[in-house]
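Sample 1 of the test manifest.
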Amino acid sequence: MYARLAALVSERTAIPTTERDIERILTAIPASADLWQTVDLAKCPFNQVVETVRVLAAEGLADVGETSIALTERGRALAAERNAVPRPSLRCTGCAGRGVSDEQLAEARRRFEAIEGGRPQPIETYDQAYVTTDTVFARLAAFADRGDLAGRDLIVLGDDDLMGVAAALTGLPRRVVVVEIDERLNDFIRQVAAAERLPLEVQTVDLRNPLPPSLAGSFHTFFTDPPDTLAGLELFIARGLEALAGAGCAGYFGVTVIESSFRNWRALQARLTGYYRVAITDIIRDFSTYENWGYLVGSVRDDLAPLRRAPQTNWYRSSLYRIETFEDSVLAAAPVDEATLYVGAESLLHTKRDSDVASS
Amino acid sequence: MYARLAALVSERTAIPTTERDIERILTAIPASADLWQTVDLAKCPFNQVVETVRVLAAEGLADVGETSIALTERGRALAAERNAVPRPSLRCTGCAGRGVSDEQLAEARRRFEAIEGGRPQPIETYDQAYVTTDTVFARLAAFADRGDLAGRDLIVLGDDDLMGVAAALTGLPRRVVVVEIDERLNDFIRQVAAAERLPLEVQTVDLRNPLPPSLAGSFHTFFTDPPDTLAGLELFIARGLEALAGAGCAGYFGVTVIESSFRNWRALQARLTGYYRVAITDIIRDFSTYENWGYLVGSVRDDLAPLRRAPQTNWYRSSLYRIETFEDSVLAAAPVDEATLYVGAESLLHTKRDSDVASS
């Protein structure tokens, strides 16, 4: 049964699906009544989870209600066959599993919280969705703990999270530069920088193009939160590498499983270590939590009733990577196919478009 | 000055050393009076740190005392030139930065603490040094949190940490097998398994040889703590991969920076993703802390006075990797050169032998 389910889901999603993926999704279903949380718990791409639930329902292994899904008795028996049990959480409650504390950044956080209410809201055009304030300051705590913030020059590539503002508020970096395409954000960040007298510059840059020469090769640290396709990840990270000043510099970025399977991670990792010749020094699981964004329902597939209802709690998470450069690292982007930048088989937006076509 | 220091250290250690490495070591020196802690803080290999301190001392940039080292005024000025400041710690104090809690494993931990006092002590022959009890249970918490312990079959390759005993005590895995070359450990583990009636088997195996066919392809999860040379890491990890039952299985292992530079990590990562075709899903920094072991002083270089004094607190740490397999992963070891298994330019044991030769 497992092999047949895996084959069906592989075929329908174009995402290679193993029997273990089916196991994981089976055990994630009873762990939450909320399909959005199930996606997060399964540690499989959204489209793979949704398609698996559809297949399980068609086989009488799961019941899909208006707002939730559940395994049938036969579904539970199938999980038991493999001794597959729900994944418990043993994350540290003090740091939500991130391993860092932002206590030392409390004053900056207080000021940030007074500012962030005025931020522009996320728009689909640029794949935006911003992270929680806990996440912003945990990221800065991680940068500082690894020696990449105090006294360093930081560039943020794409910044709907307002990482640049928060970093500058800590008073730790020597220089902070934000490059971003969205003028709404850039205006907001410029206003904040002026009002708060922050060492924070903003430039309007389309990251599909190389960085302005004045920024290339100038920074100790970059942060970016790329689109999760392989092309998107590579392009944003490579732009970050362009910004770095040689060996011993660091880059941070987020990668989800929700839109980028571990198989995709492998391809990215092979590319980073093999082509760009950087080392991966940290991968901190589920480090970043995103605030639910307004355009979600309607922009993604809705071929299960619970997907037509907005998530009740935050569900979208990414892991935080840190990479480090050497003298022989490649600090320039290889050419990228723009058509594959935002949408692939594992993207939230993918199947919506497919199913639109299929149903038309 | 930085470039000259980096060139000198590179030449003397055969470890490529960048100006940023010099910066890191410079800023780690004032952060602790204890040279062993300085090594941990610098996030550079032991031999690179020690050689840098020697070079700094020769240049009048550092003072080496009987028990500690310090920067001179000129040394501090050199650090200030680059705006290089000591790395603060922003790790979560609740979980020591590991991101997991072992609260749910408290009963197993209580039983483990009653047992571990009788363990055999580490010997140099097998590169042994065991981890703290906090580390043992944090590892199990991480395995459980990632869905790799409850109901799963676990193999531990090399086990002076007694991970197999601890895992079996949790009652979570279906099966636990330890393979280990040291008969002292195997006798101890067998006695414990019998006395505690644990689902725990032990086999005497030399990991330089392939796994016994009865164990190959049989497990969901492996754990190993390899020697830190590239050959040692690859061999132990590949033996772990041999033990796994195909796609969607997980492997865990520790890698230090103390004996394996980030440059070495890059080579390992390229090999894992490129040749073995697995994904790296987690790298948790400084996850494992090792109890100081009896044979340290005398087995490593002692060409600075503080190295002739045993560390006063635990200083040796490794990061925890998790990898995951796919249908196309290579679950068999490539041939390995045994001569490079335990000792390379970045090994603790390396320069002792070199300096013996140099001073004879």
